[in-house]
């Protein structure tokens, strides 16, 4: 049995074997008979590019580097890493940094950056992002909810609409780096961001994992995804790699690398392992309180690891 | 709600309880809790029949956790045959998109409508048979998969319930709250809340570190008037058992269950199971 892998867009009211509105078969395949969209698809209108694309390209023309933070698995530290990377870039006051949170059902970026109670304002030049500091702009759906308890129960198309708006309607200004934090998986959000940024160019993706095989399996899928859609992988980061007991200083492995961890995966796939960050309970605590771990705990081995990884990313990008 | 007969309700007519494991946030232990819940329900009597369905379509972990990640699904005249993870007694049936992939590194890059179709097939085309419990492991968030599940299971709504898993961190609790809002919006009864990864016992000195903080789950349960089902610590033995893949213990039909029974989590989960069953009766 095979599972067809078809990243083409399919509307929610499509028949079962819809070939995808952008496919050559749109409006012509057997499945299209009786579908309400048959005539539209057959006319070729759906194969035209998304009308938002030129606006996105225009807005993104002043953004120098666009980096995706991906992982496949949830809870491995994508948002935490994104935040640290953002803080590290923005430590240089001449570097303009933006963070875009694509996790629409579970936005953590506002909390981690300590700006959970902020709101987005709109002006003539678009939605103003929330500024953590002068040179660090943030956009997340978390800023648009009445309370943090509210659940966003959206299917794909609505999420895609918001992502398109985040790219074309947000007044990002001139940015040196735009860091895009993504939700787990390889679905609507991931396909949409790749599609929307195709013309502007994505500089690369950083893949985050933890050492155990269940996480690595998901990262393998994410690597497969990146290769399918043609995104350059900057490297792998292994998070929660070993735990140093604050009492006895003994190191133990909470998430045992039963299949060799990220190191083995890096060797197998030829992707660079950018570094391994040990688990420090103060990382999670900093995230909950919205403070910069790198600034608060410069002596932690995790800080050193983060900074080395960030330097390496700059190196790879040639900055 | 009108009980309309659909392919799903026909297929699930002999399933007594359907329990959704939800979390909102990723990586808090939905799949490991689902696995443990299934194992404990299985172990609760010598005749209990349990199914576990993994609807995390783009990141299926269930096959690895049950040590069956190289298995495939077979077709029969009466539908897809699930993978039985307990050997000859065939009381624990497992289904995941992971079984349908050629290579475990293949990505499933699907938008909502295809995910919706797959979920419908999982519910209507798999030969679940008679089950006492069907545990459904969900992906993070409150989106396509969750809405599709509720839609397709509408015909057996009276048999549905949910368990919410969180870690004690603020970021996870926030998503757990969103998840709770979701269950309220779709009128899904919540059996209770489990706080996972609550503390880590250092193997060298026995000191308990609150790696991901502690106590947030109890507090949330109290505030929201949810039943608190229990806490589970970070258990490296459990991680190893569920991450280890297959082993060849020849003298056992179901080696995973044996290895699991020896973990500290297995003992703690017995209390959680009691609370879950209590809630099911009281529902």
TrEMBL record, chain A:
<dbReference type="GO" id="GO:0005829">
    <property type="term" value="C:cytosol"/>
</dbReference>
<feature type="binding site">
    <location>
        <position position="18"/>
    </location>
    <ligand>
        <name>[4Fe-4S] cluster 1</name>
    </ligand>
</feature>
<keyword id="KW-0411">Iron-sulfur</keyword>
<keyword id="KW-0963">Cytoplasm</keyword>
<protein>
    <submittedName>
        <fullName>Uncharacterized protein</fullName>
    </submittedName>
</protein>
<keyword id="KW-0547">Nucleotide-binding</keyword>
<dbReference type="Pfam" id="PF10609">
    <property type="entry name" value="ParA"/>
</dbReference>
<dbReference type="InterPro" id="IPR033756">
    <property type="entry name" value="YlxH/NBP35"/>
</dbReference>
<feature type="binding site">
    <location>
        <position position="32"/>
    </location>
    <ligand>
        <name>[4Fe-4S] cluster 1</name>
    </ligand>
</feature>
<dbReference type="GO" id="GO:0051539">
    <property type="term" value="F:4 iron, 4 sulfur cluster binding"/>
</dbReference>
<keyword id="KW-0004">4Fe-4S</keyword>
<dbReference type="GO" id="GO:0005524">
    <property type="term" value="F:ATP binding"/>
</dbReference>
<keyword id="KW-0408">Iron</keyword>
<dbReference type="InterPro" id="IPR027417">
    <property type="entry name" value="P-loop_NTPase"/>
</dbReference>
<dbReference type="InterPro" id="IPR028601">
    <property type="entry name" value="NUBP1/Nbp35"/>
</dbReference>
<dbReference type="InterPro" id="IPR000808">
    <property type="entry name" value="Mrp-like_CS"/>
</dbReference>
<feature type="binding site">
    <location>
        <position position="35"/>
    </location>
    <ligand>
        <name>[4Fe-4S] cluster 1</name>
    </ligand>
</feature>
<comment type="similarity">
    <text>Belongs to the Mrp/NBP35 ATP-binding proteins family. NUBP1/NBP35 subfamily.</text>
</comment>
<feature type="binding site">
    <location>
        <begin position="72"/>
        <end position="79"/>
    </location>
    <ligand>
        <name>ATP</name>
    </ligand>
</feature>
<comment type="function">
    <text>Component of the cytosolic iron-sulfur (Fe/S) protein assembly (CIA) machinery. Required for maturation of extramitochondrial Fe-S proteins. The NBP35-CFD1 heterotetramer forms a Fe-S scaffold complex, mediating the de novo assembly of an Fe-S cluster and its transfer to target apoproteins.</text>
</comment>
<keyword id="KW-0067">ATP-binding</keyword>
<feature type="region of interest" description="Disordered">
    <location>
        <begin position="1"/>
        <end position="29"/>
    </location>
</feature>
From TrEMBL, chain B:
<feature type="binding site">
    <location>
        <begin position="24"/>
        <end position="31"/>
    </location>
    <ligand>
        <name>ATP</name>
    </ligand>
</feature>
<protein>
    <submittedName>
        <fullName>Uncharacterized protein</fullName>
    </submittedName>
</protein>
<dbReference type="InterPro" id="IPR028600">
    <property type="entry name" value="NUBP2/Cfd1_eukaryotes"/>
</dbReference>
<dbReference type="InterPro" id="IPR027417">
    <property type="entry name" value="P-loop_NTPase"/>
</dbReference>
<dbReference type="GO" id="GO:0051539">
    <property type="term" value="F:4 iron, 4 sulfur cluster binding"/>
</dbReference>
<dbReference type="GO" id="GO:0016226">
    <property type="term" value="P:iron-sulfur cluster assembly"/>
</dbReference>
<comment type="function">
    <text>Component of the cytosolic iron-sulfur (Fe/S) protein assembly (CIA) machinery. Required for maturation of extramitochondrial Fe-S proteins. The NBP35-CFD1 heterotetramer forms a Fe-S scaffold complex, mediating the de novo assembly of an Fe-S cluster and its transfer to target apoproteins.</text>
</comment>
<keyword id="KW-0411">Iron-sulfur</keyword>
<keyword id="KW-0963">Cytoplasm</keyword>
<keyword id="KW-0067">ATP-binding</keyword>
<dbReference type="GO" id="GO:0046872">
    <property type="term" value="F:metal ion binding"/>
</dbReference>
<dbReference type="GO" id="GO:0005524">
    <property type="term" value="F:ATP binding"/>
</dbReference>
<dbReference type="GO" id="GO:0140663">
    <property type="term" value="F:ATP-dependent FeS chaperone activity"/>
</dbReference>
<keyword id="KW-0408">Iron</keyword>
<dbReference type="GO" id="GO:0005829">
    <property type="term" value="C:cytosol"/>
</dbReference>
<dbReference type="InterPro" id="IPR000808">
    <property type="entry name" value="Mrp-like_CS"/>
</dbReference>
<dbReference type="InterPro" id="IPR019591">
    <property type="entry name" value="Mrp/NBP35_ATP-bd"/>
</dbReference>
<dbReference type="InterPro" id="IPR033756">
    <property type="entry name" value="YlxH/NBP35"/>
</dbReference>
<feature type="binding site">
    <location>
        <position position="205"/>
    </location>
    <ligand>
        <name>[4Fe-4S] cluster</name>
    </ligand>
</feature>
<keyword id="KW-0547">Nucleotide-binding</keyword>
<keyword id="KW-0479">Metal-binding</keyword>
<comment type="similarity">
    <text>Belongs to the Mrp/NBP35 ATP-binding proteins family. NUBP2/CFD1 subfamily.</text>
</comment>
């Amino acid at each position: 049995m095979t599972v067809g892998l078809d990243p083409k867009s399919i509307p929610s009211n499509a028949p079962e074997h819809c070939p995808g509105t952008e496919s050559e078969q749109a409006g012509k395949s057997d499945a299209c008979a009786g579908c309400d969209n048959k005539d539209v698809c057959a006319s070729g209108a759906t194969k035209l590019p998304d009308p938002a694309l030129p606006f996105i390209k225009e807005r993104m023309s002043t953004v120098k580097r666009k980096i995706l933070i991906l992982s496949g698995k949830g809870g491995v530290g994508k948002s935490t890493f994104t935040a640290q990377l953002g803080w590290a870039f923005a430590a240089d006051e001449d570097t303009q940094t933006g963070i875009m949170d694509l996790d629409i059902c579970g936005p953590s970026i506002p909390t981690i950056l300590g700006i959970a109670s902020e709101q987005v304002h709109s002006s003539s030049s678009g939605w103003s992002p929330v500024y953590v500091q002068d040179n660090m702009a943030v956009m997340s759906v978390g800023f648009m909810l009445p309370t943090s308890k509210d659940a966003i129960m959206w299917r794909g198309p609505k999420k895609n609409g918001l992502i398109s708006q985040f790219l074309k309607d947000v007044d990002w200004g001139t940015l040196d780096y735009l860091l895009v934090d993504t939700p787990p998986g390889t679905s609507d959000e991931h396909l949409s961001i790749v599609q929307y940024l195709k013309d502007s160019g994505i500089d690369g993706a950083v893949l985050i994992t933890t050492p155990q095989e269940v996480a690595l399996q998901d990262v393998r899928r994410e690597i497969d995804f990146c290769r399918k859609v043609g995104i350059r992988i900057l490297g792998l980061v292994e998070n929660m790699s070993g735990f140093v007991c604050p009492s006895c200083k003994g190191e133990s492995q909470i998430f045992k690398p039963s299949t060799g961890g990220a190191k083995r995966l890096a060797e197998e796939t030829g992707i660079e392992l950018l570094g391994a960050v040990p688990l420090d309970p103060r990382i999670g605590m900093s995230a909950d309180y919205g403070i910069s771990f790198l600034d608060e705990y410069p002596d932690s081995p995790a800080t050193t690891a983060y900074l080395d990884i960030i330097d390496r990313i700059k190196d790879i990008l040639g900055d | 709600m009108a009980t309309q007969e659909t392919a799903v309700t026909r297929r699930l007519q002999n399933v007594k309880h359907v329990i959704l494991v939800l979390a909102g946030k990723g990586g808090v232990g939905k799949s490991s809790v689902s696995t443990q819940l299934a194992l404990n329900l299985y172990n609760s009597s010598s005749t209990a029949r349990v199914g576990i369905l993994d609807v995390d379509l783009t990141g299926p972990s269930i096959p690895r956790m049950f040590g069956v990640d190289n298995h495939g699904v077979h077709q029969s005249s009466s539908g897809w045959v699930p993978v039985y993870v307990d050997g000859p007694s065939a009381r624990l049936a497992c289904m995941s998109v992971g079984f349908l992939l050629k290579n475990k590194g293949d990505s499933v890059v699907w938008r909502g409508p295809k995910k919706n179709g797959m979920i419908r097939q999982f519910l209507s085309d798999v030969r679940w048979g008679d089950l006492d419990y069907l545990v459904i492991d969900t992906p993070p968030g409150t989106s396509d998969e969750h809405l599709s599940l509720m839609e397709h299971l509408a015909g057996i709504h009276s048999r549905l319930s949910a368990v919410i898993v969180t870690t004690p961190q603020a970021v996870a609790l926030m998503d757990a709250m969103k998840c709770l809002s979701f269950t309220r919006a779709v009128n899904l009864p919540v059996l209770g809340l489990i706080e996972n990864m609550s503390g880590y016992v250092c193997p060298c000195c026995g000191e308990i570190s609150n790696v991901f903080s502690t106590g947030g789950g109890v507090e949330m349960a109290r505030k929201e008037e949810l039943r608190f089902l229990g806490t589970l610590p970070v258990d490296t033995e459990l991680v190893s058992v569920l991450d280890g893949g297959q082993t060849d213990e020849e003298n056992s039909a179901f080696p995973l269950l044996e290895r699991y029974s020896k973990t500290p989590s297995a003992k703690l989960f017995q209390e959680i199971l009691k609370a879950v069953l209590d809630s099911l009766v009281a529902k």
